[in-house]
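User: Please go through the entry that follows and flag anything odd:
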Amino acid sequence: MKRSLPPLNGLRAFEAAARHMSFTDAAEELSVTQAAISHQVRGLEQRLGLKLFVRRNRSLLLSEAGQAYLPAVRSAFDQLNEATEKLLQKDKGGHLTVTTTASFAMKWLVPRLGGFQRANNEIDVRISTGTGLVDFSREDVDIGIRYGRGQWPNLMAERLVAEDVMPVCAPSLLKGPNGLKKPADLKRFTLLHIGNFPDDWQVWLTAAGVKGVDASRGVSFDFALAAYQAAMDGLGVALGRNPLVEPDLKAGRLVVPFEFKRSSDFAYYLVYPPEAIRRRKIKAFRDWVVSLSEVAQQAA
């Protein structure tokens, strides 16, 4: 059944003007001009074919039709407001699915996640890990943290964590007369490679001005954390990325043997469809994780 309803703006203007008994006060509440309120009410009256107000020199009164119409209009707005509040309250909680890489989840996100849960205990976070790019329009994912240069079509991308690349190894590799003392000593140690970054060692050695080290040799891993674990176990030297090795550096399980670090063109970005930020739980997570990033940048 087709509904024949008056314009919503006209109904809002009528309800506000009737509540204040003033077009001027109604205009201030609705952030429009007094002339706009007068125009909208007049349009509603023309639509209904009835006068809703009795206008006098400096006063405004409801007509008999206006008095009869106002309770139903006010009730409709109250019900709409209540339904909206219930919907928003429901959206404030529930499940929030965050997609990111397993390495970033384990070493950066999860250790900090307790702060978000304490502040938002009505939200149940689900961490989904993988290296593929998620289609937000088709998959059950709310927000993501991606690794790259920050350019993904139809998505907002906010830079969270920059990245420096530097050698890392177990403290034991630095000890003794044959320990790792300077970059040229790398030729005597096993280089640990990460499959996603096959040229990393060559790029770092070139940037550091190191010669005589065969960057193609060593042990390769398809998972960054496996390479870092091998480094902790003393198997060799890996190229660490600070967001992923920071916890192990602080704990002393890994050390940085040289001062030279190479800044990466890549970083970790918070990504989401532009319209998603209107949802309370997504905005809550976005604000929390961005605040962590800002604190980290100030401390750097």
Notes: DSSP finds nine helices and ten strands in the chain. The CA atoms of residues 137 and 161 lie 26 Å apart. The beta strands are 53-55, 60-62, 94-100, 123-129, 143-148, 156-168, 191-194, 219-221, 237-241, 262-272. The first strand starts at residue 53 and ends at 55.
